[in-house]
Amino acid sequence: MAPTRDDEIRKDVQNYYGQVLKKSADLQTNACVTAAGPVPKHIREALQNVNEEVSLRYYGCGLVIPECLENCWILDLGSGSGRDCYALSQLVGEKGHVTGIDMTEGQVEVANKYIEYHMEKYGFQSPNVTFIHGYIEKLGEAGIKNESYDIVISNCVINLVPDKQQVLQEVYRVLKHGGELYFSDVYASLELPEEVRTHKVLRGECLGGALYWKDLAILAQKIGFCPPRLVTANFITVQNKELENMIGDCRFVSATFRLFKLPKTGPTKRCQVVYNGGITGHEKELIFDANFTFKKDETVEVDEETAAILKNSRFAQDFLIRPNGEKLPTCGGYTAFEAKDISTDPFKLAEGSDNAKSRSPPEAASGCRGTEKCC
């Protein structure tokens, strides 16, 4: 049987990440080295414990380590050399588990090589991390069962897959009710022309397969996820004249979104919520997304969708949730909900981030520290 176009794209991507790229410095654009912002101390420490070879073979466009991870089961799509998996394995603890799946055999070999090293470093009696060679749009073939994970993460990988709807359908299948896909990826401001989508270097560098940003909400709704929740966004600059000319007027951002799979329940009303400060590393405030920051003991009015997510996800134990109008026992402030403030466009958020950086002193503008690539 003749190979399909999708097969050819997979082969090109495998070759790019298995043969062409040997380390982060080999990348030809900054698409996969875009800073995600300041890294929380407990995550920074977890990343510093990862073996050097594993970190050197890491490529990503955001930080995909969400909050409230203790004892969770996490699946990493396109886990590569295992950097994020090994950081997460510390954060979920011995009762949690992290599975990484990647289609590039050489990357999986690097990841498997250091399982014993990391478990010994963390003081774990038995491994809580597994690496699988397989395709992220074919999780069933890799033996991943229905409703088996609390969280699925992906770091700049879904853009490499031709059939993005199939990836999201598979993620929906393997997530438990109340679970979430927390992922960073590259998005385009326009529908990409064929010559960009089929260019081998642009494809390998995460630009050629970038989804038009408005299509994410359409796909999410079709599959059954809640509407995407925008977390962070940063512009990608292509510092390569030949590639820049080919891209033309299209702009790209690396953006992190949350997609929640909620149980089918009745309609939820607007609520008032109070965060109790119980999440490790986020004791004073929880930056949930670009629209909601919950400070400890402060009452925040939230819309129906946010209320449903907080009630039906792993965050439920960390919030006091009451209908609007009911007095809450808190000594903190009060923030009212305004629908017009909801941010969904990653390009507008990236513009706001750039403006904020331009007003900040140089040392405050970057999220990366030293030589650590914290995206």
From TrEMBL:
Record bears the keyword rRNA-binding: no
Catalysed conversion reaction: arsenic triglutathione + 3 [thioredoxin]-dithiol + 3 S-adenosyl-L-methionine = trimethylarsine + 3 [thioredoxin]-disulfide + 3 glutathione + 3 S-adenosyl-L-homocysteine + 3 H(+); arsenic triglutathione + 2 [thioredoxin]-dithiol + 2 S-adenosyl-L-methionine + H2O = dimethylarsinous acid + 2 [thioredoxin]-disulfide + 3 glutathione + 2 S-adenosyl-L-homocysteine + 2 H(+); arsenic triglutathione + [thioredoxin]-dithiol + S-adenosyl-L-methionine + 2 H2O = methylarsonous acid + [thioredoxin]-disulfide + 3 glutathione + S-adenosyl-L-homocysteine + H(+)
Domain named Methyltransferase: residues: 71-217
Any one Pfam family match given in the protein's UniProt record, by short name: Methyltransf_31
A GO molecular-function descriptor: arsenite methyltransferase activity
Annotated spans, Disordered: 348-375
InterPro entries: Arsenite_MeTrfase-like (IPR026669), Methyltranfer_dom (IPR025714), SAM-dependent_MTases_sf (IPR029063)
E.C. number(s) listed in UniProt: 2.1.1.137
Alphabetical keyword list: Methyltransferase, S-adenosyl-L-methionine, Transferase
Domain of life: Eukaryota
Keyword DNA-binding listed: no
SUPFAM superfamilies (UniProt xref): S-adenosyl-L-methionine-dependent methyltransferases (SSF53335)
A cellular component term, taken from the record's GO annotations: cytosol
BP-aspect Gene Ontology terms: arsonoacetate metabolic process; methylation; toxin metabolic process
Family: Belongs to the methyltransferase superfamily. Arsenite methyltransferase family.
PANTHER family in the record: ARSENITE METHYLTRANSFERASE
The name this protein goes by in its record: Arsenite methyltransferase
Native species: Balaenoptera acutorostrata
Gene this protein is translated from: AS3MT
